[in-house]
Amino acid sequence: MSERETLLLREFKDRLDLLIGLHQKLKAERQQLREERVRLEEQINLLTLSNQELTKKFEDLKFARSLAGAEDSSHDAKIKINRLVREIDKCISLLNK
Fold this sequence. Notes:
Oligomer: single chain
Distance between the termini: 57 Å
Structural class: mainly alpha
Helix content: over 70%
Number of strands: 0
Order of helices and strands: HH
Number of domains: 1
Strand content: under 5%
Shape: rod-shaped
Mean pLDDT: 88
């Protein structure tokens, strides 16, 4: 084998080793991203359930306030609860991105 062929073979091996290393790195990163995606999906599910529970509580509170007849405090409570529900919805939408 000539010196030129030896150099070409060595360069080929070096590049191949580099490609294998990059492949392993990308493979590990891909696995990490998959795990993060699963974690985020679980978090979205938990926040969705929490949002549903809060919405139910809000509806129950509206009904209870309407029975109590306290219009002024009921209105303030509704505004605060609506604000909280909107904040939760924003958080969920950010997680969905």
